[in-house]
Design brief:
The complex is a heterodimer of chains A (315) and B (445). By secondary structure, chain A is of the alpha+beta class. Chain A is built from twelve helices and 13 strands. Chain A is 38% helix and 21% strand. In chain A, strands 8, 9, 10, 11, 12 and 13 form a six-stranded antiparallel sheet that branches. Chain A has a four-stranded antiparallel sheet with strand order 4-7-5-6. A three-stranded parallel sheet of chain A has the order 2-1-3, sandwiched between helices. In chain A, α1 crosses α12. The longest helix of chain A is centred in the first third of the chain and has 17 residues. The mean pLDDT of chain A is 95. Chain B is an alpha/beta fold. Chain B is 40% helix and 13% strand. In chain B, α10 runs parallel beside α12. The chains are: A alpha+beta (315), B alpha/beta (445). Chains A and B meet through α1, α6, α8, β9 and α9 of A and α1, α11 and α12 of B.
């Protein structure tokens, strides 16, 4: 334990997911302290950057979600400060955070990705929203998923079942970001597959099956205990279970991710896994999927994070 | 590389084989918890607390102007010399001396109350909770202004009340709308348990009931046997005139008056009160004892000592000047920066401006963009129980400095312009899917 030194858990930030990040940070700090590790939990603010030269931590666990935390910018700062940290580097984070680009990369690697178009508001404004949305609906069919091209926690995400819902969905989406991703909706079993690499290569943890009470796994379903039912491992046949695990590991590898990630997938009625997105800083709250997968693997969250921290420290 | 998924060991995750909701009690909660869920809008306010964000959302008083050194000395002296009382249980009704002083405070708004009819509470929010507890059964009707205080709506919801909004305009509650609401209830066979009103410097609407309106509302209350719950946290914080005369000043038995030291002294002490007719007061005391045994003695005595030993009315004047300057800063900035089609109230006291956005905009849908641009407000829907208020927002000027207020309004104006651009592109259809919008509640602000 002693060689690990002082761990800095960074949580908070200024993204729309600040609240979730604070909850993740608080939980993780507690888990690590239970293992006797010296932990400092703090926000990623200007005071943090100023404090590093005089009192650098030995290793950093960045738990900021959303922009800054997952778009590579915070990790660039950590590189500039020459601090070892858990998780993907700046370039891979940037790649994974941008859903359209990530989708292209994983599709080239052979994963199934739902057909999608991404457009900024300016294009809709300049070329005519009605025509473009009509075209999108014809091509992608209904229902279709409208979501920001970057961001997590299903913020700004809608499933559109009728053309009359589109303006609302578009306005809601653009409130969270500059680009909208319009994606074919794949019906099926929603699963999240966490991947960890403690030194022997990336390993998929048991897939977590998500069954929300409501129409989809939205913010309320994600963060209200009791609003969603989880199955670990997912109720998939062994071949499909291996297929989703392989898809998550493939995504982890081709996106250049490191240490940990979580891929979200849908398994359709034919048992085909469809890749939705990869997360470089998966949530660690009491209702988050990564800790559920860790528990399902027979480990504790603290044990897994400790192994990842030691690996980062020795990098 | 391994892609095989390990099986679950029996000692961990066993319950997850059969599905877990991560809450062992999910089937046992009372019905009143149904709305108690995570909210992405509420989560955005975690960002608003950061200094990079100009928050025009919260209603925090500026307590920096309080004489903190003097209060510190008073508290130390209190514990040193009256610690045996200050650190002990006290009366469920509240400290007798403080209740006397509260009657003095109420005289400034024209109320001649008796200390025996005062119940000291943990902020006026607890008074509101107790009043609702003793009057409202699930399904009972409560009348409130449109819009109304979000904390009151939460209380009414937690007691499963049916909330009916009654129209307001720039002169406060509209008497004709009140009559119509009562008639509608009578036709449906229901009698409202009470009318909840904030006559002075309304939260969130920023308007004040005129004297004529108060007289009309009194007439209606007497004629219809309607109990009035008058919430008056801001009455002493008028900018240009003497405190308006309370409704309770002219109707003794038909009004429960709620007061607070949170805006005129310190919200952290959580000391408020209810002045109620004798029989009601008895039940309030019993309900309070069942809830908290007694209000905190130390906090009550701290307020009592402050009222006794400090020029508290002079301090209220300091607050009034400070908030007037901030109100002016906000109104000037709104006048200068907000686009055509927006309009807002011009408060003569209190903390809040109620802003109505140009047609087609949705303040709740716009909030994430505002947070991205480092400004926060409370969407108007928070102040309605029925989904109204989509075009509106509450802006508070009580906490940020005038410079920050101006900067916040500048950022807000930019956000509104961007949102207008979006609505021009996609149309205003997003307003149509808000639950409850078809309900016939008035939205005159």
């Amino acid at each position: 334990m002693s060689e690990l030194g002082r761990v800095l858990v960074l949580a908070g930030g200024l993204s729309h997911e600040r609240d979730i990040s604070l909850r993740s940070g608080s939980r993780v700090a507690e888990e690590l302290r239970d293992l006797g590790i010296q932990v400092e939990l703090r926000d990623a603010d200007a005071a943090f950057v100023r404090s590093v030269p005089a009192d650098p931590p030995d290793v950093v666990l960045p738990l900021l979600h959303g922009s800054q935390g997952e778009d590579g910018s915070l990790r660039t700062v950590l590189e500039m400060l020459r601090l070892p940290y858990v998780g993907a580097g700046p370039a891979a984070s940037r790649l994974a955070f941008d859903k359209p680009t990530a989708n292209t990369v994983v599709a080239r690697a052979g994963l199934n990705v739902p057909e999608a178009w991404v457009l900024p508001h300016a294009t809709f404004r300049d070329l005519g929203a009605d025509a473009l949305l009509s075209r999108a609906m014809r091509a992608l069919g209904l229902p279709l998923v409208v979501q920001p091209a970057r961001g997590g926690s299903a913020l700004g995400c809608s499933i559109v079942h009728d053309v009359s819902e589109l303006p609302s969905a578009m306005v809601g989406c653009f409130a969270y970001g500059e680009d909208a991703l319009l994606q074919h909706h794949v019906a099926g079993t929603e699963v999240a597959v966490s991947v960890i690499d403690t030194g022997d290569g990336p390993v998929a943890l048991p897939p977590v099956e998500i069954v929300p009470d409501g129409p989809f796994y939205d913010y309320q379903a994600r963060y209200t205990a009791g609003a969603t039912e989880f199955f670990v491992p997912a109720r998939l046949d062994p071949a499909t279970r291996d297929a989703v695990a392989e898809a998550a590991v493939t995504a982890h590898l081709v996106l250049g991710l490191r240490d940990l990630s979580r891929s979200d997938l849908i398994v359709d009625a034919d048992g085909v896994p469809w890749f939705l997105e990869a997360n470089v800083a998966p949530g660690m709250t009491e209702t988050s999927l990564f800790p559920l997968a860790v528990a399902g693997s027979g480990q504790t969250l603290g044990e897994v994070l400790l192994a990842l921290l030691q690996r980062a420290r020795n990098r | 590389m391994s892609t095989r998924t390990p099986d679950l060991p029996e000692h961990r995750g066993r319950s997850l084989r059969h599905g877990s909701r991560l809450d062992s009690y999910v089937d046992r909660y009372a019905e009143r918890t149904l709305g108690m869920t995570a909210s992405q809008i509420r989560s955005l306010f975690a960002v608003a607390s950061r200094p990079e964000v100009v928050s025009l959302a919260g209603g925090m008083p500026t307590i920096a102007s309080l004489p903190l050194d003097i209060i510190g000395e008073q508290l130390a002296d209190l514990v040193r010399h009256d610690g045996q009382s200050a650190l002990q249980y006290g009366s469920g009704q509240g400290d007798p001396r403080l209740r006397e002083q509260i009657t003095d405070v109420m005289r400034t708004v024209g109320i001649n109350g008796h200390p025996d009819d005062v119940v000291v509470t943990v902020g006026s929010q607890q008074a509101l909770d107790l009043v609702t507890r003793i009057f409202v059964d699930p399904g009972d009707t409560v009348l409130v202004e449109a819009p109304s205080y979000v904390g009151a709506l939460s209380t009414f919801r937690s007691y499963q009340a049916v909330v009916h909004h009654v129209a307001m305009d720039e002169h406060g509650l509209v008497p004709e709308a009140l009559r119509a609401a009562i008639r509608a209830g009578q036709r449906a066979g229901t009698q409202p348990k009470f009318l909840y009103t904030i006559p002075n410097y309304h939260n969130p609407a920023g308007v004040t009931q005129t004297a004529q309106r108060r007289a009309e509302i009194l007439q209606i209350a007497e004629a219809e046997d309607l109990l009035v719950v008058e919430d008056d946290p801001y009455g002493l914080l008028g900018f240009d005139a003497d405190p308006p005369r309370a409704i309770r000043a002219d109707l003794h038995d038909g009004v429960i008056y709620l007061g607070s030291f949170s805006k005129t002294f310190a919200p952290g002490l959580r000391v408020g009160w209810a002045l109620a007719p004798h029989a009601v007061r008895e039940k309030l005391v019993l309900a309070a004892e069942a809830s908290v045994l007694c209000p905190p003695a130390l906090n009550q005595l701290a307020v009592s000592r402050y009222l006794e030993s400090y020029d508290w009315l002079g301090q209220v004047k300091v607050f009034r000047e400070l908030y007037r300057e901030r109100r002016d800063a906000m109104l000037d900035a709104l006048d200068e920066l907000l686009p055509d089609g927006s309009h807002w109230t011009r408060p003569e006291g209190g903390f809040y401006v109620w802003l109505t956005l140009p047609d087609g905009l949705d303040s709740q849908a716009m909030l994430p963009r505002a947070v991205t641009d480092r400004v926060a407000y409370v969407p108007g829907t928070a102040f309605y129980a029925d989904g109204f208020g989509t075009r509106a927002m509450r802006l508070s000027y009580c906490f940020p400095t005038p410079d920050r207020i101006r900067e916040g309004v500048r950022r807000l104006a930019g956000v509104v312009e961007q949102e207008l651009d979006l609505v021009r592109t996609f149309g205003p259809g997003h307003l149509s899917d808000r639950a409850g919008l078809s309900l016939p509640a008035p939205d005159l602000t």
